[in-house]
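Working notes for the structural subgroup meeting. M.R. asked for a predicted model of this chain before we commit to crystallization trials. I am recording the input and output together here so anyone reviewing the notebook later can reproduce the run.

Input as submitted:
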Amino acid sequence: MTSTPTGSAAYRELRAQLDALTTEAFRPELSEIDRLPTEEIARIMNGEDATVPTAVAAQLPRIAAAIDATAERMTRGGRLIYAGAGTAGRLGVLDASECPPTFNTDPGDVVGLIAGGPSAVVTSIEGAEDRKDLAATDLDALALTADDTVVGVSASGRTPYAIGAVEHARTRGALTVGLSCNADSALAAAAEHGIEVVVGPELLTGSTRLKAGTAQKLVLNMLSTITMIRLGKTYGNLMVDVRASNEKLRARSRRIVSLATGASDEEIETALAATDGEVKNAILVLLGGVDGPTAAHLLTDSGGHLRAALDNSNSPTE
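Returned structure, recorded in token form:
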């Protein structure tokens, strides 16, 4: 008689692994939460969520180190690549997809890989997260280089796809980051930069789209946003590399130029016309007193850093 999956040694081993994870722990005090009034459940859930930033704060030195190492490589032309399964993979895809409109990056500069491919963003692909080889295949398709950064994301810290991505990236000399929500995780151990945001057991046992998902989103926000700040994609807290791809963003572009320069609407329109709508260039035209081509040249020489370009501009003082 063939043994069933539930009676197999592999199942028992996996069950033991899950039992040991903080994110999978059962909370007896919440065992009758379904009997509570809706507002009380919401209050409890809100209280749970409020603990997440503190858990993230405990990892700030590790997060900062990972950001600095990532930015250094991206300055040399490297990419930021997220790899995860399920919720973790979707969060990586989300963060990557928001970088082009926010920072005017090429779609290939920040990439989100999810176990099972793009369709897994909306549909569960059974078994994909259990295969390290799929991660290696996905990374090979990107022609990984030593200047790239691969961030494995997994709430449990044991997901084979995420671990496989980090392990394979290291064989290619890429920088590796492991983001998990359990201490002493296999994912963090496999990466050069291990970030473990321990948020504790979930409101619903094992539902790591909750606090763990929130923690991962906060950290991914930091990884991409602060890396882009380091790359000169902002001027102060203004998104000067924003891509004006719709009416809202076109209005935002003009507001950014206004906030940065204090120029009149007429001056702003003239500067944007002289720079093909590039916000950063228009600001340099207005603050540096240069023409459009000179602004482009100065920004190229400064690696896209507006402050450095302004320092290098010979704006007339008369």
